[in-house]
Give the backbone structure.
Amino acid sequence: MLTTTSKLSLAYKAVSVSCRPCIDTCNPKTVLALRSLASVAPQKSTSKNLNSSPQGNPEDSNKAYERVPGWYFRRWIWLLIGFDVVWTANAVDLTFNNWTEKIPPKEKDGTPKYELKSLWARLPACTVISIGGAALATGMLLMRRRVVRKIEIRPNKRVYVETAADGNGKGILVEKSSCDLRPGRDESEMIMNISGYKGDYWLGLKGATVAGLGGSNWDIRRRLHEKWFGVQLHGRWASGRSSGAWM
């Protein structure tokens, strides 16, 4: 069923074709209003078709990869680090102030007695506990900086990489040629290396999207391969590096 706007648009087009010699003699305001309706109606239809397209949001076209990290890599990581600090502090306190040893009784009643370990025994133990707690907290923070949250392919063959530790829009912008995309330990992950940056960047495929489209691990691999290398993928990832060796 045609709307009032569509009817007016069609009416103007019909009049403009059949009565072109006399249309300019009409009221200018009426002609201007009909022309506006004729130009607006097609725009609304185009916008509706674009939003209803099953190909995804056009704004996501440059997003080669996007995934929300696990809760333990977001703000909750500070709670985990807080637990680590509290546990480490309590362990050091118990070791230093309550680590005792049994000594032979000197009295006839034979009542056992306990005394603190020597300082040279307690200090190394407290040091090991402290180093372990600090290493655990540091490891969590470093892992957070290696979990990729977003990859965007920008113009001029540049790539924007954002990790779980980066704020929105505070990632790094590097040349695409300096990035090496390769398979991970299994089909649920992929690994990226960036020249000039130490370590591996981890890409989880479960729950990820490519150009705004989700799917299975295989779907994400296929779309990411096509987006990154520009080659359609029909098989599985084979051993290889940035050459995109698949089979």
Summary: Residues 96 and 123 are 7 Å apart (CA to CA). The first strand starts at residue 63 and ends at 66. Helices lie at 4-18, 20-23, 28-51, 76-98, 119-144, 217-229. The longest helix spans residues 119-144.
